[in-house]
Amino acid sequence: MNTENVLFAFGLTLFAGLATGVGSALAFLAKRTNPGFLSLSLGFSAGVMLYVSFIEIFPKAKASLMTVYGVEQATVFTVLAFFGGIAIVALIDRLVPSFENPHELRSGDEQSPERRTLLRMGMFSALAIGIHNFPEGLATFMAGLQEPTLGLGIAVAIAIHNIPEGIAVSVPIYYATGSRKKAFALSFLSGLSEPLGALIGYFFLLQFFHEALFGLIFAGVAGIMVYISLDELLPTAEKYVKHHVAIGGLISGMAVMAVSLLLFL
Predict the structure, then answer these.
(1) Is 205:42 a contact under the CB 8 Å cutoff?
(2) Which residues contact 248 (CB under 8 A, 6 or more apart)?
(3) Rounded distance, CA 82 to CA 125, Å?
(4) How far apart are CA 224 and CA 213, in angstroms?
(5) How many CB atoms are located within 10 Å of the residue 91 CB?
(6) N or C: fewer beta carbons within 10 Å in the chain?
């Protein structure tokens, strides 16, 4: 395994994870969150994820499995792994109550009469973000390792939707404690679960790495991204502004991802 490729893939994962810290910084620069910007960004991220999942990741997963199992079995395994990825992330959502789900972003203007409630909200959001970001880190790392260009696109998409997650953690903690340092630190730490996912992927999965494993993991990753896009990013984007802003972001994300892939044909 090329050391430079490993370092590049890990760097992409670290970049995506630390974007939660960027979200904290943005939250402190303004008195209120710009709902249009958040909606457009979340829609854009969903567009990138959906396009790359169906156009790039799913076919690559099937192609890898075909080298081992043939067309028919590879197709069946790819589909099963795709829905397996959906099932995994859906189970995580099931285990994390919606009130504490980081992807259900809260406005920076929202204030509770009880600071303890705000602090609890921020702490649970930080924990939930860590849970959600772990498989995203694994996805980014594996993509960057196999296809650097694809990994970069995924990292950018994940980083975009990690920014409002950082806001979701930092704002309630800041309002509860009055400490920017504490709010930023918890948001920053919650994003570190992504490079942690990459490390586990490297030390525990790569020793078993072969075409079949790559195909199954990539198909699962496609399922994870589709679920995150449809269940979390788009619904959250539409809560803040008109429907067409979120859809405009979605189409823009697809177009940007399409152009970036065309440039490397």
Answers:
(1) no
(2) 40, 43
(3) 27
(4) 16
(5) 10
(6) C
